[in-house]
Amino acid sequence: MKTHNLGYPRIGSHRELKKASERYWAASRWAAPLGDPNRGTKTQSLKELLDIGKQLRRQHWQLQQAAGLDLIPSNDFSYYDQVLDMTLTVGAIPDRYQPLFEDASLSDLDRYFAMARGFQQSYQENSLDLTAMEMTKWFDTNYHYIVPEFKKSQSFALSSTKIFDEFQEAKAQGILTKPVIIGPVSYLLLGKEKEAGFHRITLLEKLLPVYQDILQQLSDLGAEYVQFDEPYLATDLSDQERTALKFAYQEIHRQFPQLKIILANYFDCFGDNLETVLSLPVDTLHLDLVRCQLQLNDILDSGKLSDQTSLSLGVVDGRNIWKNDFAHSLTFIRKAIEAIGPERVMIAPSCSLLHSPCDLELENDEQALTPEIKQWLSFAKQKLDEVATLKVLVKEDNPAVHPAHQINQAIAESRKNSELIHQNAVKQRVKGLTNTDAKRQAPFAQRKQLQHQALNLPCFPTTTIGSFPQTREVRQWRAKFKKGEITETQYQDLIRQETEKAIRWQEEIGLDVLVHGEFERNDMVEYFGEKLDGFAFTKFGWVQSYGSRCVKPPIIYGDVSRPQPMTVAWSSFAQSLTSKIMKGMLTGPVTILQWSFVRNDQSRSETCTQIALAIRDEVVDLEQAGIKVIQVDEPAIREGLPLRRSDWPQYLAWAVKAFRIATSGVGDETQIHTHMCYSEFNDIIESIAQLDADVITIECSRSQMELLDAFANFAYPNDIGPGVYDIHSPRVPSQAEIATLLEKARTVIPTDQLWVNPDCGLKTRGWEETQTALKEMVAAAKQLRESVSEPTA
Questions:
Q1: Do residues 724 and 757 make contact, with C-beta atoms less than 8 angstroms apart?
Q2: Which end of the chain has the least Cβ crowding within 10 Å, N or C?
Q3: In 3D, which of 456, 515, 462 has the Cα closest to residue 778?
Q4: What's the whole-model pTM score?
Q5: pLDDT tens digits for 175-217?
Q6: Is 181 helix (H, G, I), strand (E, B) or coil?
Q7: Catalytic one among 286, 355, 405, 728?
Q8: Which helix (H) or strand (E) holds 605?
Q9: Active site residue 728
Q10: Checking phi first, is residue 75 left (phi over 0); if not, alpha (psi -120 to 50) or beta?
Q11: What is the pLDDT of residue 251?
């Protein structure tokens, strides 16, 4: 019996990779934000970034080796994204980036980052201006991947040695790793066709020879196991896609029978794909037994599992932070052993530990994370120990008497019986909800007239999504305040000054609906969690969201309630500084749920409803304080959608209801906005309409307004703000570019429904590029206003 890991967090326990990457970007002539003092310098060399990557890989391999794992992954490390890595490996580089490969002054990493972040050699010179590749959510997680782009005549060629380099790197340290590769079918399905007339799965025959080249070189280097990640097996595949899957793995086995292929599926069951999967000539099937416990019985009872196929049991939760229940996990392991023998069983986390924080041992602040709650938790490093301990326990005749098992069960009981978890008043309030609590007073058409009169906005009203750049100074103020180096009064005075500067600047450039900038906030979820009961926090619990962007999700351990107002004081202060409309900014209940580590002792829908009631109280208080426009962001509502369509209705019913509970306590004159980003809306557009937000703002720029087709085909009834420029890239769009996108939007959305805004918050950008881009955006809106007459309400 073996233990293995599907992947380890790449960012480092102290976010070393994030910091090194950002230093390198700042030092790179083409990547530094406009106005950055490091623009054009080489204060952080390419060698330093590469060295930090090498150090992290070595540390992670050694850590897993010390934990006692039998199979340790390689090629799970990435400087930005594993899907983008695969795109470079197979040579699927979009044509627009070819000039970068002709510029000898650029490194391979420069070209790689250009695909992820865009490339603008100089805004003033405008000599080369390339948009970034599209980015979207990795299945139902908060991780974002770079979407491959395919054309009908697409060719592939082995174009990177990364997989081999890292395998040899580990081998030189005495560790024979298990290379991890995104499977060929999932890789194609993760991408998009950039022209009509073909399905990307038909490219498999062109792609497969590159995979065979990869396997040949790995075999020559001495690889024994190779892990193929095929997470699309957790989705509804077509017959054509299943046929492609069979073809791919039959060809791989035919050419490389000596390689032991681990086929990894995670985030859900195999479902209707199970029969196909059981027919594949692979060495091992990996099962996510956290997300889908029934599939082990389905496989063992089917009678179709080959005698040559092993099972990898994903019993340790790779996506959440709760300590494993050994007794529960051992039941699955024993069942598999009894059916197929220990030599055909592997023990593993449910998925890559990419989605987990690195190391619980770093959490030594007992005020931030109390010992009682901390004992219930397990981060990536601790999950490795859990996997190894389960292998020890399953060999015991009576594991219940083993000290590790006894400690584990005592902790499980302490959590189950803790008085921290339950609030009867919260439970009763949820039970008392009625349908009226989830419904605005009047339909949108009537509300729109009342809001037009109350707000008096022009056509193509301009706004931003909420946050403005959090400069180094702002972050330093927060750090000093937390360390006690400045008083709360001093900290708030500094934030007030920064807020007023942002408001005056917005007035100056002519934005119509202002925001206060959110300088007092650390994170759009963490900030609210800190002010709600039922949440706990870490100091080092970072996980990667995309590229160098890391988030520190709160931990929802108990019933959720709002003890006092959270944002009213700052919104009121901001509104007092201007006669223009100030937008109140909140995070929605589904997003707070999705972007937190959620308790697993009650349904997610119950927890979400508790959060919705807390947000409802805040929305009502903002309205009473005179805030006329309130934005309740729900960027994660599409992300939370189950992977199988049959499970959608149940999720969408409670997710939509939670949003409506949160936003339906206000009068008709109060305008409710929501924001969503990096999501495909086509399949759930009716549910998005059921949210009944007065205005929805969405990400559209990277897809060149493709996402608007969903809203046009459905005839979306409410107002829409399609994002007109990509805030995840340092490049600055021109007025003409933005105007072109808006004209494209006007072909599918009526003029009187269109708002003008960036595609997301501006927290991560620099001030000069932000100011330049927003001036261009406002100018584009004014340009379009000149071409139309003012609409009547």
A1: yes
A2: C
A3: 462
A4: 0.90
A5: 999 999 999 999 999 999 999 999 999 999 999 999 999 999 9
A6: strand
A7: 728
A8: helix 604-624
A9: yes
A10: left
A11: 97
